[in-house]
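Lab meeting, item 3. Inverse folding demo.
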């Protein structure tokens, strides 16, 4: 049976009809808006590019989402490609779209060791830059970017992915860490706060369901808080796979992070049909299959339902849930870890229609207190 033709179970229909009236078809006006379903609980966001906001996917955005994140165009290497040149037009167009459609705008990301511009760590003669100079460059970058979008960005990922996946190592070895030592972390949060005092400031990382990594994240943000550093929240990326996400791990994860008392944002949610892999690799024969099988889709539906049941349970702590991309028409996972291998990790299919997983998510609204 074609997975698009699967029927919603009787109990699910009853719930949907009770919630949304006659939801017996999937014509545009009987499909509930995701952002309306979760209004007053959390924002529903998506990562976008300056191009896809104006494509057919933009219509999905307008109906279902109330928050945007720039997938790439605010990263250092893209927005600040040369010492004295900033590329404002991409982020400006996303900011304008957010304004025009009454959406929030999340900033991603002020400092990350990936997608950095080559010039940042080098003197003009090629030598490695001094600590003082790198800190000065970071400060100028943060004041320029956070300053330009002051009042437009409601929350910034100030620092992305600084903690190591190796259980025995705390920080990832990055040029920032090697040149400046850990003190740069405290400084960038203070500068971001000075540049935009009203923005909420986040540390954002992945593999948060892993107990060892989670402990590190909580330890780092707690240390910063204890020192009086302005950090308001933790971004849990949520790049998960149907082959490894476990309910008990997600429960423990949200419980521990909620206990910090900080604001939680789910920042980069998707649920891959492929097993997660840490490194890029070449395509193999076994990758040339359609992963969107009935069995995988059923598993994805059930897990998306489970995920949102947890988000609803911890809604007092969770302020926003952002998907990484909008629909299965395009996902970064089509390129990663295997270039050209299709994935279907989101709630809307490649034809921009709600998947069964969408309805499983919507169903969780019944658990509102
Ligand atoms: O724009 C160039 C294009 O000009 C060039 O022809 C092409 C050739 O490969 O590359 C294009 O740039 C790519 C860019 O995405 C835009 O599509 C880069 O190669 C590619 O590396 C980059 O990947 C992005 C990745 O971050 C970089 O590490 C993904 O789109 C983006 O989804 C991903 O997002 C990250 C979050 O920021 C942080 N958390 C993890 C998440 C997934 O890796």
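The presenter then showed the designed sequence:
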């Amino acid at each position: 049976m074609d997975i698009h033709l699967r029927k919603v179970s009787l109990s699910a229909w009853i719930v949907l009809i009770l919630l949304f009236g006659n939801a017996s078809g999937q014509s545009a006006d009987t499909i509930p808006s995701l952002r309306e379903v979760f209004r007053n609980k959390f924002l529903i966001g998506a990562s976008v590019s300056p191009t896809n906001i104006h494509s057919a996917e933009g219509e999905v955005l307008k109906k279902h989402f109330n928050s945007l994140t720039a997938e790439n165009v605010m990263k250092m290497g893209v927005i600040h490609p040369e010492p004295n040149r900033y590329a404002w037009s991409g982020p400006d167009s996303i900011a304008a779209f957010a304004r025009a459609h009454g959406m929030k705008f999340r900033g991603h990301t002020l400092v990350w060791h990936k997608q950095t511009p080559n010039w940042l760590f080098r003197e003009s003669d090629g030598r490695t830059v001094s600590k003082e100079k790198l800190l000065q460059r970071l400060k100028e970058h943060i004041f320029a970017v956070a300053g330009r979008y002051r009042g437009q960005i409601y929350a910034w990922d100030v620092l992305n992915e600084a903690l190591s996946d190796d259980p025995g190592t705390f920080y990832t070895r990055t040029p920032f860490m090697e040149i400046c030592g850990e003190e740069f972390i405290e400084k960038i949060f203070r500068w971001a706060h000075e540049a935009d005092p009203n923005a909420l400031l986040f540390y954002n990382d992945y593999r948060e369901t892993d107990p060892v990594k989670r402990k590190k994240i909580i330890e780092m943000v707690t240390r910063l808080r204890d020192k009086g550093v302005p950090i308001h929240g933790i971004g849990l990326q949520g790049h998960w796979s149907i082959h490894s996400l476990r309910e008990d791990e997600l429960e423990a994860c949200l419980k521990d992070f909620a206990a910090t008392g900080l604001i939680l944002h789910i920042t980069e949610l998707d649920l891959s049909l492929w097993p997660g892999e840490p490194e890029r690799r070449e395509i193999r024969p076994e990758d040339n299959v359609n992963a969107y099988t009935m069995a995988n889709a059923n598993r994805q539906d059930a897990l998306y339902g489970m995920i949102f049941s947890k988000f609803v349970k911890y809604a007092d702590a969770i302020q926003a849930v952002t998907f990484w991309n909008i629909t299965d028409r395009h996902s970064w996972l089509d390129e990663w870890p295997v270039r050209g291998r299709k994935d279907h990790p989101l709630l809307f299919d490649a034809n921009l229609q709600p998947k069964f997983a969408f309805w499983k998510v919507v169903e969780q609204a019944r658990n509102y207190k």
